[in-house]
């Protein structure tokens, strides 16, 4: 894999650019509260015509996981999936088990709590309430 240099980008911008650079064509997702940075990155990439994986919105985490599995089985190229925290992670486990049994190559990114990033107290409280169960 070659080295790429990214300037003046967010972590989400870098993540999506690196996925594309590593041959990821599609990003399957059932969006949740922790997706805002990636959605903003995808919008920015569209305006700047940057190369990023094509986002596919899925109605359920099982759908997202199995679409990525199917793509791999047809092309031999692993794809990216992002699921919502808590129940989304649990729903995605079905696909992980199927992928493991089918020897599908996988990269796992675990959802984490949103950073404070100078958020006002009211927004931090809402954020903390949204993310309390998955992380405690």
Describe this structure in words.
The protein has 136 residues and is mostly helical. It has one domain: 3-Layer(aba) Sandwich (Rossmann fold). 51% of the residues lie in helices and 8% in strands. It contains 5 helices and 3 strands, in the order αβαβαβαα. The protein has helices at 11-21, 36-48, 61-75, 87-101, 121-135, and strands at 26-29, 54-57, 80-82. Strands 2-1-3 form a 3-stranded parallel β-sheet, covered by helices on one side. Helix 2 links the parallel strand 1 and strand 2. Helix 1 crosses helix 2 and helix 3 runs parallel beside helix 4 (87-101). The model is unreliable at 129-136 (pLDDT under 50).
Reconstruct the topology from this structure.
Layout (H helix, E strand, L loop, with lengths): L10 H11 L4 E4 L6 H13 L5 E4 L3 H15 L4 E3 L4 H15 L19 H15 L1
Helix pairs in contact: 1-2, 3-4
| Strand content range | 5-15%
Backbone structural class:
mainly alpha
Largest sheet, if any?
Answer: 3 strands, parallel
The backbone outline, from C-alpha atoms, is globular
CATH superfamily: Thiamin diphosphate (ThDP)-binding fold, Pyr/PP domains
| Rg calc | 16 Å
Helix content: 40-55%
Placed side by side, the strands forming the largest sheet appear as 2-1-3
Number of strands: 3
Terminal-residue CA separation:
37 Å
Please tally the helical runs, counting DSSP H or I stretches of 4 or more residues.
Answer: 5
Mean pLDDT: 81
What sequence of helices (H) and strands (E) makes up the elements? HEHEHEHH
Named CATH topology:
Rossmann fold
Architecture (CATH level 2) name: 3-Layer(aba) Sandwich
When the domains are counted, the total is 1
pLDDT < 50 stretches: 129-136
CATH class: Alpha Beta
């Amino acid at each position: 894999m070659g080295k790429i240099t990214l300037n003046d980008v967010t972590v989400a911008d870098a993540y999506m650019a690196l996925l594309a650079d590593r041959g990821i064509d599609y990003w399957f997702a059932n969006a949740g509260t922790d997706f805002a940075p990636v959605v903003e990155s995808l919008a920015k990439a569209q305006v700047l015509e940057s190369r990023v994986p094509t986002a596919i919105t899925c109605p359920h985490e099982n759908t997202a996981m199995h679409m990525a599995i199917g793509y791999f089985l047809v092309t031999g190229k692993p794809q990216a999936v992002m699921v919502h925290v808590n129940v989304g992670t649990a729903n995605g486990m079905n696909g992980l088990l199927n992928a493991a049994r089918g020897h599908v190559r996988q990269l796992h990114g675990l959802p984490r709590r949103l950073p404070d990033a100078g958020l006002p107290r009211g927004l931090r409280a809402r954020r903390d309430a949204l993310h309390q169960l998955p992380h405690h």
